[in-house]
């Protein structure tokens, strides 16, 4: 699908200067960066000179499936939290838990601009499966 992002802000290759332009994309590929008002293809998003297009963020350290453990013992000091809350749960983890937690984490990451993540946890095959299904980069 072709899209035009009209009158948006992008940075030049030096990353020092921003400018307004129109950006034409096809599927997930940028096809053209043109002066404002040059041409329009497909669906049009109007940035009104106030919306910036930036690269996706990368989360370089995470345990995605732990989204399902959010709030569990959060009032405890680190070692008590690990020993009394987290490790007992992790002793009973299974592949479907990790897949579901990773699916949720990916939804949350994408909704806030994170498009790539590094993960280290249990059942890494399930993390890889979730990333492949969501078409996000993961290592």
What does this structure look like?
It is a single chain. With 139 residues, the protein is α/β, with parallel strands linked by helices. It has two domains: 2-46, no CATH class; 57-138, no CATH class. The protein is 29% helix and 31% strand. The chain has helices at 78-90, 95-111, 124-134, and strands spanning 2-11, 18-26, 29-34, 43-46, 57-62, 114-119, 137-138.
Brief summary of the model shown:
With 139 residues, the chain is an alpha/beta fold.
- Strand proportion: 25-35%
Largest sheet: 4 strands, mixed
Residue-averaged pLDDT = 93
What is the overall shape? elongated
Number of self-contained structural domains: 2
How many helical stretches?
3
User: Which structural class best describes the helix and strand composition?
Assistant: alpha/beta
Assign a percent range to the helix content: 25-40%
- Spans of at least 5 consecutive residues whose pLDDT stays below 50 are none
Instruction: Kindly report the spatial arrangement of strands forming the biggest sheet.
Output: 3-2-1-4
Q: What order do the SSEs take from the amino end to the carboxyl end, as H and E?
A: EEEEEHHEHE
End-to-end separation in angstroms reads 28 Å
């Amino acid at each position: 699908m072709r899209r035009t992002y009209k009158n948006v802000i992008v940075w030049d290759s030096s990353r020092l200067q921003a400018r307004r332009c129109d950006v034409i994309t096809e599927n997930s590929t940028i096809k053209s960066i043109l002066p404002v008002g040059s041409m329009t293809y497909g669906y049009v998003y109007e940035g009104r000179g106030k919306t910036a297009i930036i690269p996706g963020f990368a989360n370089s350290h995470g345990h995605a499936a732990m989204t399902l453990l959010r709030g569990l013992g959060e009032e405890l000091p680190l070692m008590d939290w690990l020993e009394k809350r987290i490790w007992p749960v992790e002793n009973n983890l299974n592949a479907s838990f990790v897949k579901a937690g990773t699916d949720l984490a990916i939804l949350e990451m994408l909704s806030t601009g994170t498009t790539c993540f590094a993960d280290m946890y249990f059942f890494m095959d399930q993390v890889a499966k979730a990333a492949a299904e969501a078409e996000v980069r993961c290592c």
